[in-house]
Amino acid sequence: MTETAVENEQAERVVEAPSSAVSDEQLVAMLVDRARNEGLQLTGEGGLLQQLTKRVLESALEGEITDHVGYEKHDPAGKNNGNSRNGTRAKTVLTDVGPVEVKVPRDTAGSFEPQIVKKRQRRLTGVDEMVLSLSAKGLTHGENSAHLAEVYGAEVSKQTISTITDKVMDGMAEWQNRPLDRVYPVLFVDAINVKIRDGQVANCPVYVVMAVTVDGTRDILGIWAGDGGEGAKYWLHVFTELKNRGLDDALMLVCDGLKGLPEAVETVWPRTIVQTCVVHLLRNSFRYAARQDWDKVAKALKPVYTAPSEDAATERFLELQEAWGQKYPAIIKLWSDAWAEFVPFLSFDVEIRKVICSTNAIESVNARIRKAVRARGHFPNEAAALKCVYMALMSLDPTGKGRKRWTMRWKAPLNAFQIAFEGRLTPSNN
């Protein structure tokens, strides 16, 4: 037997000693001293952390059984009192430091219900959060299981991991129906395509609605799955749901030319200005142009979307049509079709233009979602896809630093909104 193994075996004998023989303070002091002087293993199987966890859990369980039966261990007062101790049973629980085997006391009446390690409980606090964190990063159930086995030496089945992540759905339903603020300066609507295996693998859009609050913070209002053929009826359902949750007014809504969306906005929030994403218009324009003409087309388009007014933009667009209309009629049609939703931002100053001319404000959110979705490949159904997207959203900005940077960037635009929409941008009631 190696020297380290002997040390660990000695330490385990100390841990397994009766509570009355060695106090918790003495145990900690002995193990820490041994770890410092003789190199006792800190982590891993049989390590210091596992042994301390074992001792703490068993001490707590011993206290619980004492309270339940009404007498201390080996106390003569326990004889013939109607219920007595009945030995222990070994049970392995998964903890943050790996699997730990504890001895759970029993009573003769079978009425003892331990709370620190409940009956049939196999995981202690922290493990579920670990599984959810890994799932939010896009790991499959199998990859989750392999990671826990490799790092913590814990055998957690794919079914168990599925059970843990399924608990997310209750929180998701509550989050999707929570009350909203009365007014938001800007709403951003964008889509993430996920692959769903329904007979055959096909793309399915998941729509994300993100808002900027009157305080300049970011708020994801909800996620909805579509089939790619959404129209006014679909968007009317989504926006009515948001209104029923308390959203009475939105100053502007930025989107990427989603069919039927402007009509639905007009019905639910008549005063809301719908602004198409200029960046998406530019990207779509280049799809119709040959690669060698991209720079020339970009140079011709810039005077249109940087024009000081709608009239000036119209003049520049006519010049664009004259120069490129014959070679690239699809580009001209693209801008003509989107013109009504393109021009609103031209009426505002540069601070508002910078934030409403594109859906870039939501792109960092979409990037996190795409990372998680791509890692999964495809999903068996719509519910699994929404669960993955929701977990990715809940893991955004864990340190809060991104929230601070976001808020600072929105100070100037919010001041401009306050002036441009005087009387509508008031503090929320929630």
TrEMBL record:
GO terms for biological process, alphabetical: DNA transposition
Keyword DNA-binding listed: yes
MF term (GO), any: transposase activity
Biased composition, class Polar residues, residue ranges: 80-89
Region (Disordered) residue spans: 70-89
Coiled coil spans: none
UniProt xrefs under Pfam families: Transposase_mut
Record keywords: DNA recombination, DNA-binding, Transposable element, Transposition
Superkingdom of origin: Bacteria
Similarity field: Belongs to the transposase mutator family.
Function of the molecule: Required for the transposition of the insertion element.
Protein name: Mutator family transposase
UniProt organism field: Streptomyces flaveus
Lineage: Bacteria, Bacillati, Actinomycetota, Actinomycetes, Kitasatosporales
